[in-house]
Amino acid sequence: MDRAAHALEARSLSREFNGFFAVRDVDFRLRRGSMHAVIGPNGAGKTTLFNLLTKYLAPSHGSILHEGEDVTRLGMAAMAKRGVARSFQISAVFSGLSVRENVELALLRGRGLGWSLLGRISSHPALIDEADALLRRFGLSEQADALAGNLSYGRKRVLELATTLALEPSVLLLDEPMAGLGREDIERVTGLIREMGEGRTVLLVEHNMKVVAELADTITVMVRGQVLAEGTYEAVSSRPDVMAAYTGE
Ligand code: ADP
After folding, report:
1. Residue nearest to atom 6 of ligand 1 (CA)
2. Alpha-carbon distance 174 to 170, whole Å?
3. Is the predicted ipTM greater than 0.95, yes or no?
4. Which of 74, 149, 203, 217 has its Cβ near the most Cβ atoms within 10 Å?
């Protein structure tokens, strides 16, 4: 297959914690342009796999490829430069900055510029227009001048997505984007993720099956550190072994 067909690929990837394999010998491919979800019961190794792919954790064995190139030894910053961005948890939203400043800062970071430039460049019309467009797209215009720290939990998650998209990644990795959200926010964030997936590759770890069924074209089911099944929602959800894994039989 064309080497660029896979945005990310894991080969025999394992991660051990004191003799326990949270992820064992996983072969995983994230097809370019796909919207791919990783699901599985608690403790299946989803977060560990996500953290390995995003370079938050180093593997014990195996390798990771980005567009066919071995990136196993690269760190998070190098991956970001290659256009692979993960949604950071809320801790990466700067509480002391306004919503607009958070978006402007992310736009600057997406261009490889640092935060020290914020004061100087934020008045640049192009940046203001871009920030405005992002704020509108994410429904944050009305709260543009509010301190990010004063936003509700749901709004912070939306801001987090806006700042991740501001980095203009080609591969977007989202860790439980619906966690802690109410119904309305889930609907909004589902729509936003669908939009964000246009022209990009998206990987999400998500517990909400309705969202997974709605968004993902490919689903990987993990159980006990390994891949149990892969395919469309219809295909994996009709498998008895997948049902059994969820019910703990
Ligand atoms: P999931 O995201 O599917 O719930 P995790 O990847 O968080 O699963 O965890 C998989 C297994 O690895 C669990 O049994 C968990 O206790 C273990 N594990 C994860 N991280 C660590 C760690 N830092 N130290 C020890 N064990 C860990």
Report:
1. 45
2. 13
3. yes
4. 203
Model pTM?
Answer: 0.89
Helix intervals (H) in 98-152: 99-110, 118-121, 125-137
**What region, left, alpha or beta, does residue 162 occupy, with left being phi > 0 and alpha being psi -120 to 50 degrees?**
alpha
- Please tell me the CATH code under which domain 1-83+171-187+203-249 is placed: 3.40.50.300
In this predicted structure, what is the pLDDT of residue 76? Answer: 87
**Residues 104-147: tens digit of each pLDDT:** 888 887 776 655 555 554 556 778 889 999 999 999 999 999 99
Structure letter (DSSP) for residue 164: H
Q: How far is CA 207 from CA 183, 200, 212, in A?
A: 14, 22, 8
Residues with CB under 6 A from ligand 1: 17, 22, 40, 42-48
- Summarised one tens digit per residue, pLDDT across range 149-187 is 999 998 998 999 999 888 888 999 999 999 888 898 899
Tokens 């796999």 appear where?
49
Calculate the alpha carbon distances from 163 to 8, 27, 99, 197, 249 in Å.
Answer: 22, 30, 10, 15, 41
- Please report the atom of ligand 1 found closest to the CA of residue 22: 12
Task: Give the residue extent of every domain in the chain.
Answer: 1-83+171-187+203-249, 93-168
